[in-house]
Amino acid sequence: MSEKPAGNAGERSPHVLEIKGLDVTYSTSRGDVKAVRGLDLAVRRGEILGIAGESGSGKSTLAVALLRLLKPPGQVTAGSVLFHPAGRSPVDLLKVDGEELRVLRWSALSYLPQGSMSSLNPVMRVEDQFKDVILEHAPARKASLGELIPRLLGQVGLEPRVARMFPHELSGGMKQRVLMAIAVALEPDLVIADEPTTALDVTIQRVILQSLADLRTDFGVTLMVISHDMGVHAQLVDRVAVMYEGRLVEVGDVRQVFKDPQDPYTQQLIESIPKMGRRAS
Amino acid sequence: MTAEAPPAEVVDKVPEPAPPSGVRAWMSRHPLAAYAVRRFGLYLVELWGALTIAFFFFRLMPGDPIQTLIQSLQQNYIYNQQASAEIIARYRAEFGLDGNIFSQYLVYMKKLILHGDLGPSLISYPTPAQDVILRSLPWTIGLLGISAVLAWILGVVFGAIAGWRRGKLGSRIMTNLSIALSHVPFFFVALILVYVFAYTLGWLPARSAYDSNINPGFSLDFIASLLKYGLLPGLSIVVIGTFSWILSTRMLMVPVLGEDYLVYAEAKGLKPWRILTRYALRNCYLPQITAFGISLGFIFNGNVLVEQLFNYPGLGTTLVTAIQQLDFNTIMGVTDIAIFSVLTAVLLLDLLLPLLDPRVKYWK
């Protein structure tokens, strides 16, 4: 295990995640590209934190780096990510490896990918994709699976029979909900959601956002929501962090940021939201 | 869908297909049975087509089998005068060579389908060709069947590991070795094996299928002898087969490893072995099942030479002898058996696929 948080080791930290000086670099044949530069950010327990920014701003790289899913040529070159799971000692996510990291996954740190991606195994029934992760990290729940899976599906507004279906039998919105239900199956401390509403019908986007907000209420999870869509942040998050060219340009209460953006880039992002009565050309 | 946000229940409904009628209703209610019926119909058409082509193809061969028979009888002094036209005509009728080619075809197909009769063998006259074939068939099924299945299993397992550990030294060695060895012909490996293990080291026998001093039967000695004699011919098929399966499995595995569900499985914190078997391999071995059926035909070709080389009393040896003697009915019989077994294997594997892959659906 890595270092303890400053001073009070036993007491519960108000933060779930403390990112300090994070640098992520992609090494290419034409030199290194820094996708995340010196990022400092703390995620408070129980909040929904939004990460905003345009394509290429480094927000998805941040997500995969935090989830330790970064693949070469991507590489974390500096910084620390202190994670405070409830009931466990704090760990630096960037320093754990192998079995230690595997045990931490899902029960403490889970991932909600974009539903339009093929994140569900096409040849496994939905229920089996719940089962494998639950039995891996909480084998004691084997007996209650028959009750647990329909309850989790119900939580995101899906019928119990979805459990017997295969991913190709689900619509994009249904897949997104299945992924949401799997993400909270083990009541993790932190869920990192990467573009949870992108590539969905606008009407379904609205429903998904509502379900995400409900998950926080029902499960008390902390959510980190990465989205390029400022509308998502306006509707869902408590605080928003704006990234531009790998740097954090602004963090603050979502109302405050929308009402009075400090950084010129944030202003541009907010102005980019289409408004009724204003034509593009 | 309207512009308004629909309530959640509406979104979740799976669209029910409209109730169809008649045959289509039965087909959509029993998709697997409907598929099996259609697939079996196709099988019958394929079988008929292939047997017909084989028949006409062999009738185009130059040479007169009856003249050959008469000649061989003369050589053996069994028949020492010029054959009379009557006797030749009798032989022609018996071998199914009288009348024009279409009536020959009809007689041949009728005998084949109704009685399983292939006509008399020329070499072992008057023994029917099917008896000659049935005598050698178990040897080939034993040798070819076991080695083909073994090569497939080994190839898929090692290919999956080679793909999983791509970039690592062991995997690179295995891949390059497979590229080099998968196109070496069976008989070449067989020659090397014979040279090393039978000729130089003298460990294993290089000829026949069992020790002729042991009586065939269900005794331990006989089975041990079978294995000992079958090892070299079997190995020559397994070695090359395994390498080509390794190569193709690795090729199917690598793109699967880049899929989103593999990243998701890793994020789930599943054990690597479970990710390899339930997520990666489970999604890439299905095409290999179909490929296995098709490969049986190719292995059969290679097997002919391997059997000949080891003097193994299987179909391959029978076929070569039959071709040398222009034993018409046996040549066609062996070809028919090969057609039948490859088509049947592909049929069975195709029927197996929908049970293995939930995405395979068979109604339109």
CATH topology of chain A, what is it called?
Rossmann fold
Largest sheet of chain B: none
Helix/strand-derived category of chain B reads mainly alpha
Which CATH class of the domain at 137-314 in chain B is shown? Mainly Alpha
Shape of chain A: globular
CATH superfamily of chain A: P-loop containing nucleotide triphosphate hydrolases
Give the H and E element order of chain A. Answer: EEEHEEHEHHHEHEHEEHH
Poorly predicted parts of chain B: 1-11
Q: Major sheet of chain A, described briefly?
A: 6 strands, mixed
Shape of chain B: flat
Q: Flag low-confidence runs of chain A.
A: 1-10
- Rounded to the nearest angstrom, the radius of gyration of chain A is 19 Å
**What's the CATH C level of chain A?**
Alpha Beta
Number of strands of chain A: 10
Q: What is the CA-CA span between the terminal residues of chain B? A: 25 Å
Q: Structurally, how many domains make up the residues of chain A?
A: 1
Percentage of helical residues of chain A? Answer: 25-40%
- Oligomer class: heterodimer
What would CATH call the homologous superfamily of the domain at 137-314 in chain B? MetI-like
Describe this structure in words.
The complex is a heterodimer of chains A (281) and B (364). Chain A is α/β, with parallel strands linked by helices. Chain A has a single domain, classed as Rossmann fold (3-Layer(aba) Sandwich). Helix content of chain A is 32%, strand content 26%. In chain A, the strands form 2 sheets. Chain A has a 6-stranded mixed sheet with strand order 6-7-8-3-9-10, sandwiched between helices. A 4-stranded antiparallel sheet of chain A has the order 2-1-4-5, covered by helices on one side. In chain A, strand 1 (15-28) and strand 2 form a beta hairpin. In chain A, 43% of the residues are buried. The model of chain A is unreliable at 1-10 (pLDDT under 50). Chain B is mostly helical and 364 residues long. Chain B has a domain at 137-314: MetI-like fold (Orthogonal Bundle). Helix content of chain B is 73%, strand content 0%. Chain B has 15 helices and no strands. In chain B, helix 13 (286-310) packs antiparallel against helix 15. The two termini of chain B are 25 Å apart. The chains are: A alpha/beta (281), B mainly alpha (364). At the A-B interface, helix 2, helix 3 and helix 6 of A face helix 1, helix 11 and helix 12 of B.
